[in-house]
Amino acid sequence: GARRAGAPSSGNGHGLGGGFLAPRLVGVIDEWNEGKACGFIKCSELQKRLFAHKEDFVEPFEDGQGPPVGTEVTCVLGQDAKSGRQRAQDIRIGGDAAPGESQRLFGTLCDFKVDKAYCFIQCTDLPGKKVFAHKSDFAEGFADGEAPPAGTLVSFVHGLDPKSGRERATDVRLESQEALEAQQAQEAQEEQRLYGSITSWKDEKACGFIEVAGDSAGQGKPKRFFAHKTEFAEPVPEGFAFAGAEVSFVKGVDAKSGRERAVDIRLEGAEGVEGMEGIEGMEGMEGEAKLEP
Fold this sequence. Notes:
5-stranded antiparallel sheet, CATH 2.40.50.140, 6% helix, CSD domain-containing protein, mainly beta, NA-bd_OB-fold, 293 residues
């Protein structure tokens, strides 16, 4: 699901195994040997350096063109298949985690060890695993002996212990069933998103069509969906070149005609409008029927 915080093993034999998604770490290239195509990443979260090899970078680079010292990266904590030592894998240039990687997981508390102030969280997002959580990791503190009972629904961020490097829950928050259901509904909608490009657009009517490849639309051939400017999740600036823009959307139904149409449209890739200013008002719906297929 979209709530998992992390990235899968890169499949090169150095992964953590188990098929679950590991939390990503942020660090900088502390040392790099061009001759051996390897070096070390300094990771503040673990307070140690992790070995890094060229083959573990997501984006390949030519020999002799390795990342310079000081380059910000993110990575997953892995284990060398031969030596058993910790190493970096799934390394990505840039200090920001990819979308979704810091999102919250849901689970239920197992018995709380009052004398040692810790418990485990049974997490449905990590099948077969229980995640360690300490009293100090709860967002809202509670007095000794007043720990939440077993079965309490919580959300948390999947992190790592800075000393041992083992998985643990951080920023643990008590949640309601309604919060879980809302999160699941949002995930379900995200999983149903379609991706395509705007093939035609009429500025005077503020509408056009999005074409989706056959596989994405569940059809044997490309399919077009009607799209109106008012259905974009973020306001689009006046003069924006809609034709050719890559977008994602959710399949909806027109209230009047009953025909399928695109809703919750989002610009993808370089066309994203996040942070744009000077937004003009939206056009009306007049003339929409004339563009219907």
